[in-house]
Each structure stands twice: as C-alpha cells, then as structure tokens.
C-alpha cells in the first residue's frame, strides 16, 4: 500500500515495488479516468495486481479502512509506504490555523493511523516493511514551513518508536528523507519561476537547488522508489529506525 501514489514520489515507489513483483494498492487524488488508466497500465506492465482506493487520509477511519481493504484485496498487507503529504508556506504569525491542522493531519497523523492499523497483521505474519517518506525537513528546518517541518520531524520520531517496538517481530520501519525531487509539481514550479523571472527553466532549477543542496542535481522519483525497494529486500533486514537521506548533501552541511 503506497499512499499518495497517483503521481510524483509515491508513483515512483509504486512502480519500483511493482517491478519487484509486489501487488499495489494505490491511493491519491486526481482525475478518476486518469487514475484508472494509470492503475491498468501498472498492472499490465509489471503483471501484478493493482487496486485503487481514494480514501481521505485526513480521516482516521478512512485510513483504517484502506488498510482493511488492502488486506482483503491481497490477503495481507506486507509493505506500507506512507507518502501522502501537502505543503503550505507562510511565517508563523501569518500561518492559517486550518493549514496547520490539515498538514499535521495528513503528513503526520495519517502515518500513525496507518501504522496502527497495519502492524497487527504484520506481526501475525512475522514479516513487514514500513517506509515513511519524510524529508530533509524531517532533520533540519527552513523558515516559513512551520507545519511541514514539525510534521516531518514527527514522522522521523514516530519511525524510530515503531522500529524499537517491532525490532524482533520481523518488521523494519525506516524513513526516507529526500531533498529536492523532480516531480511534476516541482517541474511546474520551475516553469512558473522561469516565466516570472524571464529566464530559462535550467537557470531557475540551479538557483532552487543551490539554496539548499551542495549537489546541483535533482533526485528522481525513480531513485526514491529504488531506495524503498532496497529497504524491502532481505539485504536490508537489519536496517531499522533509520532516517535515510537522499538529498544531494543537504543535511551534510
């Protein structure tokens, strides 16, 4: 089950896991016809079962519901990837209360509710992989992102607690902490910046990267997906409780 998997990082993770033979429960918002075409395309390309559930992860009951649906659809939920998230940028004194509540609900509370619902089944099977997509902002801060930074720090902390509780249950729990990832959303932001500044997309891309990353190169959704797939492999069976950076050196500074 990969939340927020209809585009961007979540789709990259879903594709990587499907390529390794995993059946996929997709989740996310978007045009229904486009999502169905995407679902069918993944199933045909990788010869796996792919289902979709449009659960609103801001609602705890719906988080538990999609876990149950995944278990009933596929027989078990072995890999949980908590990826769905939203962002809003403003100074603390100008940050809307409703945006704080929404970001904490989706970026942090949904992670808790999904883990809570998925862990009993994983414990019964004595095997499971939980991967929480955090961020470089789960380890360091930036101004004007109070809710996002707080939520992602919380995700890293929750990951560590779950890893300790499940250390001898055959279940690993890790957080992936990406820096700048070249998703369709970021690509659009770069085009908008270039239009506004009267420059080229490549120039705006380098400016954006240079604000945070020593390495002036975007991470791809596919690379995040490959890292997630590795964390699900037998080779990674003793990697747990780790916030793993894939950020062009962002947090090394």
Description of the molecule:
With 253 residues, this protein is α/β, with parallel strands linked by helices. The chain folds into 2 domains: 8-180 and 219-252, Rossmann fold (3-Layer(aba) Sandwich); 182-218, no CATH class. Helices cover 50% and strands 11% of the residues. The chain is built from 8 helices and 6 strands, in the order αβαβαβαβαβαααβ. Strands 3-4-5-6 form a 4-stranded parallel beta sheet, sandwiched between helices. A two-stranded parallel ribbon has the order 1-2. α2 links the parallel β1 (24-26) and β2 (50-52). The longest helix has 29 residues, at 97-125. The model has no long low-confidence stretch (mean pLDDT 98).
């Amino acid at each position: 089950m990969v939340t927020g998997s209809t585009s961007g990082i979540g789709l990259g993770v879903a594709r990587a896991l499907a390529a390794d033979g995993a059946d996929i429960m997709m989740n996310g918002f978007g045009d229904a016809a486009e999502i169905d075409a995407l679902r069918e395309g993944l199933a045909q390309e990788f010869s796996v079962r792919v289902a979709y559930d449009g659960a609103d992860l801001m609602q705890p009951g719906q988080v538990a519901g999609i876990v149950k649906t995944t278990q009933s659809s596929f027989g078990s939920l072995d890999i949980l990837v908590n990826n769905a998230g939203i962002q809003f940028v403003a100074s603390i004194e100008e940050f809307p209360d409703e945006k704080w509540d929404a970001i904490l609900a989706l970026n942090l509370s949904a992670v808790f509710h999904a883990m809570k619902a998925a862990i009993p089944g994983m414990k019964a099977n004595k095997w499971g992989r939980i991967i929480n997509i955090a961020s470089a902002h789960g380890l360091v801060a930036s101004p004007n992102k109070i809710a996002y930074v707080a939520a992602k720090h919380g995700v890293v902390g929750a990951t560590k607690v779950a890893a300790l509780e499940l250390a001898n249950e055959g279940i690993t729990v890790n957080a992936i902490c990406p820096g700048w990832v070249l998703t369709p959303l970021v690509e659009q932001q770069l085009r908008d910046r270039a239009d506004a500044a009267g420059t080229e997309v490549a120039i705006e891309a380098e400016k954006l990267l240079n604000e945070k990353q020593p390495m002036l190169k975007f991470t791809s959704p596919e690379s995040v997906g490959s890292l997630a797939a590795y964390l699900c492999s037998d080779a990674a069976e003793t990697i747990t409780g780790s916030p793993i950076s894939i950020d062009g050196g962002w947090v090394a500074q």
